[in-house]
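Technical annex, item 7. During the second reporting period the consortium partners agreed on a shared format for inverse folding records so that results from different sites could be compared directly. Each record opens with the tokenized structure and is followed by the designed sequence. A conforming record, contributed by the partner at site C, is shown below for reference.
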């Protein structure tokens, strides 16, 4: 069983790294005026953050909606992650879909900046939870 716990931690940390990379990419794309791409990367920073936390519970889904639902159920409803994160996740998902698939969607600078700030907040909240969970489990 200890190997399973270590694997969960490794996945969680790996996914946090991916989230951090996506967040950095979103900021760089934003700075270059590429708002559609920045919205995409901001969403994926959130997505990989959520999957990081889910890894600690050995939960995943093949669908984005499944990841979101499980994250909300296990972390937001249980009070581990602030409730306002739920709206941020929903907004990021909607805007990412529009940015990626709607030819007529125009990503504004203001809206994109908000998405990046939200992604940073979600990442910070999830990282704090994941690191605390890992640290606590090491002391048991």
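Designed sequence (site C submission):
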């Amino acid at each position: 069983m200890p190997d399973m716990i270590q694997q969960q931690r490794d996945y969680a940390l790996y996914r946090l790294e991916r989230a951090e990379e996506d967040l950095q990419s979103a900021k760089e794309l934003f700075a270059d005026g590429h708002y559609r791409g920045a919205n995409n990367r901001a969403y994926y920073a959130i997505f990989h953050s959520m999957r990081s936390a889910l890894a600690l519970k050995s939960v995943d889904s093949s669908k984005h909606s499944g990841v979101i639902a499980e994250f909300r159920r296990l972390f937001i409803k249980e009070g581990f992650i602030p409730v306002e994160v739920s709206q941020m996740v929903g907004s990021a998902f909607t805007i990412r879909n529009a940015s990626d698939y709607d030819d007529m969607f125009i990503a504004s600078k203001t809206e994109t900046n908000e998405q990046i700030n939200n992604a940073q907040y979600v990442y910070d909240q999830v990282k704090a939870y994941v690191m605390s969970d890992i640290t606590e489990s090491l002391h048991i």
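The chain has a mean pLDDT of 95. The radius of gyration is 15 Å. All partners now use this format for quarterly exchanges.
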